[in-house]
Amino acid sequence: MSRPVFYERFGVDVNRPGNAEFRAHQRADLLRFAAASAVPDGFGWLDNGGRVDPKRPTHLWITCRMTHVAALGALANENPLPDGPEVARLAELAAHGVESLRSGALHDTLHGGWRAAVKDGTVVDGTKQAYGHAFVILAASSAVAAGVAGAGELLEEALAVSGARFWDEVQGLSVDVWDESWAQCDVYRGINANMHTVEAYLAAGDITGDALWHARAGRIAGRVAAWASQHDWRIPEHFTRTWVPMLEHNVDRPADPFQPYGATVGHGLEWARLLIATEATLGSSGASGLREAAVALYERAVSDGWEADGAEGFVYTTDWHGAPVVTERMHWVLAEAINTSVALGRVTGEDRYTRDLERWWAYANAYLIDSVGGSWRHELDSSNLPSATVWHGKPDVYHAYQAALMEDVPLTPSFARALADKGGVV
What we know:
By secondary structure, the chain is mainly alpha-helical. 49% of the residues lie in helices and 8% in strands. The protein contains 14 helices and 16 strands. The chain has helices at residues 5-10, 20-34, 60-76, 87-103, 130-145, 151-166, 191-208, 211-229, 265-282, 290-305, 331-348, 351-368, 398-405, 415-422; strands at 38-39, 42-43, 58-59, 117-119, 122-125, 128-129, 167-168, 173-174, 177-178, 189-190, 238-239, 263-264, 317-318, 324-326, 329-330, 379-380. Helix 2 crosses helix 3. The longest helix has 19 residues, at 211-229. The radius of gyration is 20 Å and the shape is globular.
């Protein structure tokens, strides 16, 4: 591994990457990087140097993630880096995100809901996606906790759209994509959108006090845990309209950024964390077996994904026997490994998760954290060198910021509610 260069930049005297001082500096630097992403339509796609890429449209999911992170930054109430944004600036950025989602081009005032992407006020992708709408709920929930004007109305609208258009009460799951006018629902069903719907519903329940959203998160979580158990704890990602797994989906396009072929290692890790959060929210009687499923998902993901091709790092995907398919290393996978190690360490008390946590932070510090350009390198190749096969640039800081925050908040409630209850990171 390379030297821990992050320490040198900020003069952090620590014994290991990932301790409290290290995490605080990470949060501050990620917020500094993210502050440059504001554009009239919301938040733009950042390149490797932290500049908005003018060739790319404004995406709903990025706008929502950056709004969420700005709200968390304001709620954390920490001292900024010398060249970083003040807390008041973060509150302004969160307010900008809320206003963009309420009255900007992403918001469809004719048909309702939110478009997937716009550019300079013009619609680029008008589809209505459960993935993006889940992040509207998350962003609005965090903004409500941060006291942003209009966030309550945004959350109310987002929950109404999610409940009316995406939630399937019979299945206890979310459908995936509608056309712009809500006339036609795509036959594809996906687990990725459901994963972020669980995250969003947990946050919304924490903010509104309405247990309906927690219960729906629990229903989704239970279905996914059951599917994973039937496939040796590798999660089927893609389904038909009637929820039959499509295990060979995109076998000819294995590196698709949103619908990759095979088992996605990082989603095994991310789902494990969400199952723990769901159990902590509902209690063991309302979420039977989720903790055991989380342990099994984590163990499978680490066994299949870590150093699967002989080099450090998590591969992106595997086939259904655990053999690597796409060997690029995604920063978000490592971030979720950090989060889940924290969660499992707390609920099990086992030292192995602490040892894993140290290993994940050491890897992040050696290869992912960009101490010169800022943020985390979003993708590395199988030799742990910067790559752009799946992701170009450094679009957002959502995964990395939450990884740097996870140890400083309880398992439940969700990030924004926890920070609001504590009065910041204390």
